[in-house]
Design a protein that fits this description.
Shape: elongated
Number of helices: 7
Strand order of the largest sheet: 1-3-2
Distance between the termini: 37 Å
Structural class: mainly alpha
Radius of gyration: 21 Å
Strand content: 5-15%
Length: about 170
């Protein structure tokens, strides 16, 4: 597909006209990242909704699924994986337990520690939602060949790493 003008091109042209002294190069990159993020968020929400999940539910279920058998983590580990507060996580676990997606259980090695475990329903839903998400994301990346996708992933990683590892800035 040949390069076509997008909304960012129009914004940059307008800013160039109004403020020709500004270097608009960051706007050309990061405004596209922002706009793409909005489109990706909509696609993710649709993929998850198809399986009866909200994005936050998918995040918790996916963290448990990635933990491997027996698909359980402490609430503290879930906090770190999903970047929410303890109050928010407690509320989410409560709601997901009521929906039959997870259940709390005592740690077999230390009964004082509570763990959150995927139920069979939670496992089925997260696996199906992940497959739908990947299919949709493949469609969204369809305009890029494999080399372009690898190059884009590498460039985006270079932008993201400093936020995830601030000491390395």
């Amino acid at each position: 597909m040949p390069d076509r003008e997008d909304e960012v091109d129009r914004l940059v042209r307008a800013w160039s006209r109004e403020r020709p002294e500004l270097d608009l190069e960051p706007l050309q990159v990061l405004s596209r990242v922002t706009r793409l993020s909005r489109h990706l968020d909509r696609a993710r929400r649709a993929a998850f909704a198809h399986h009866g999940l909200e994005p936050w539910q998918f995040d918790v279920l996916a963290a448990l699924r990635r933990a491997g058998e027996p698909h359980r983590l402490t609430p503290g580990a879930l906090l770190r994986a999903t970047l929410v507060t303890s109050g928010t996580m407690t509320n989410r676990i409560d709601r997901m337990e009521a929906a039959g997606l997870v259940r709390r259980q005592a740690d077999p090695a230390d009964g004082r520690v509570v763990q959150v475990r995927l139920t069979p329903l939670g496992l089925t839903r997260v696996d199906a939602a992940m497959a739908s998400l990947l299919a949709r994301e493949r469609e969204l990346l369809g305009g890029l060949d494999a080399g372009e996708r690898r190059a884009l992933a590498g460039l985006l990683r270079r932008l993201v790493v400093p936020f995830e590892h601030p000491s390395g800035r």
